[in-house]
């Protein structure tokens, strides 16, 4: 029993050292990997039609800007409108689609969801991969 306790303590120390040495980028990647793994365990088969509709709904620079702004802090409708410098009906349309796809939610203010944050990270990874291909 004492031997097991010593081994456990040694493992705890090693884990602490590993955690201290994790690069922030690695930490983000580990977080993404864990969340994706959890989601993939319970996800149904891919519905191509539904996936295409979601991607089409998100395929707009202003909607991506809204998500980026909300990833920094929750914002009200007027703040979003003023930042984008577009008319209210346009902002309403963008917010409606982002709410429908569950990329954002509305509480006191609009805020990004975990899915929205994950989507932004995926976009950043895709952008980084595209930049890497330009250098090849």
TrEMBL record:
GO-annotated molecular function: DNA binding; DNA-binding transcription factor activity
Keyword DNA-binding: yes
Residues annotated as domain HTH arsR-type: 43-136
SUPFAM superfamilies to which the protein is assigned, alphabetical: Winged helix' DNA-binding domain (SSF46785)
CDD domains: HTH_ARSR
A family per Pfam: HTH_5
Sections of the chain in a coiled coil: 1-28
Keywords on record: Coiled coil, DNA-binding, Transcription, Transcription regulation
Classification via PROSITE patterns: HTH_ARSR_2
UniProt-listed PANTHER family: ARSENICAL RESISTANCE OPERON REPRESSOR ARSR-RELATED
Name this protein carries in UniProt: Winged helix-turn-helix transcriptional regulator
Native source organism of the sequence: Pyrococcus horikoshii
């Amino acid at each position: 029993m004492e031997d097991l306790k010593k081994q456990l303590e040694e493992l705890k120390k090693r884990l602490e050292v590993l955690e201290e040495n994790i690069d922030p980028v690695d930490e983000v990647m580990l977080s993404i990997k864990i969340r994706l793994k959890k989601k993939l365990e319970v996800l149904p088969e891919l519905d191509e039609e539904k996936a295409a509709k979601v991607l089409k709904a998100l395929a707009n620079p202003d909607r991506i800007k809204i998500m980026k702004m909300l990833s920094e802090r929750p914002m009200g409708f007027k703040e979003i409108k003023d930042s984008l410098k577009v008319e209210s009906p346009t902002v309403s349309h963008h917010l409606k689609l982002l709410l429908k796809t569950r990329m954002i939610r509305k509480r006191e203010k609009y805020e990004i969801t975990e899915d929205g944050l994950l989507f932004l990270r995926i976009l950043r990874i895709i952008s980084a991969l595209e930049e890497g291909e330009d250098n090849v």
